[in-house]
Design a protein that fits this description.
The chain is α+β, with helices and mostly antiparallel strands and 218 residues long. Helix content is 26%, strand content 35%. The longest helix has 29 residues, at 185-213. It is globular. This is DAPG hydrolase PhiG domain-containing protein.
Length: 218
């Protein structure tokens, strides 16, 4: 895993659409196999199409022009919590899709105890959704991220979830200890808040950005 600076970045002083937690439906549940699922059903993302979301996740690196100035695009997506994203590995043809690997660094709620510092192999990326599997320290597969996109008349219906743990009896037995030491309910709800904020921000920048960078795809 490549070395990346892990410190918090200054808050990006830009206009952004910070949606509240109650703008979406969300919750926590224990799956039959013992894993813990935190889930979100977001408000419709107006003027955002699934093809824009696929393009975004394939083009997370670099800077963008936003409100007349240039900023790191990942930082614009969440001006407070995001630190770094890059592609640890691309597909053989240089593109991003199943088989590529993300590198993600962020602090949920700007809290140092909620540092996310993972590599995450991409399992699925198309207009139906996105799945990647974060590995703790680049080694331990302890989570699964599942997104689903559905085109509507007004934009995109977007739901996603974070599934924590591994399948099997051992996690059912160890879950209370695991949650106490590594990922308790407060941590999970911090993820929900962070995710609602970043997904809501798509409406504020992604349609214009997609049009600017894909003029020939209209």
């Amino acid at each position: 895993m490549k070395r990346v600076k892990l410190g918090l970045l200054p808050i990006l002083e830009i206009e952004w659409l910070r949606k509240s937690v109650d703008s979406a439906k969300s919750g926590r549940e224990i799956l039959p196999d013992g894993r813990v699922k935190y889930w979100i059903q977001h408000e419709i993302l107006k003027e955002v199409a699934p093809k824009m979301l696929v393009w975004w996740f394939q083009n997370l690196e670099g800077d963008i022009e936003y409100k007349g100035k240039h900023y790191n695009r990942y930082h614009v997506w969440h001006p407070e919590d995001h630190v770094h994203v890059s592609y640890e590995k691309r597909k053989e043809d240089g593109s991003i899709g199943p088989g590529a690997v993300l590198r993600i660094v962020e602090y949920l709620g700007r809290q140092k105890k909620y540092l996310v510092n993972v590599i995450s192999p991409i399992e699925k990326l198309d207009e139906d959704g996105f799945i990647h599997n974060p590995k703790l320290y680049g080694l331990l597969p302890l989570a699964r991220m599942e997104y689903r996109f559905q085109q509507t008349d007004d934009g995109t219906y977007y739901e996603n979830c974070l599934i924590v743990g591994w399948k099997g009896f051992s996690f059912r037995f160890l879950r209370p200890i695991f949650e106490f030491l590594f990922f308790d309910k407060k941590h999970g709800y911090a993820w929900i808040k962070h995710n609602i904020e970043e997904v809501g921000q798509f409406q504020n920048f992604l349609p214009d950005l997609y049009r600017k960078e894909n003029e020939n795809l209209r």
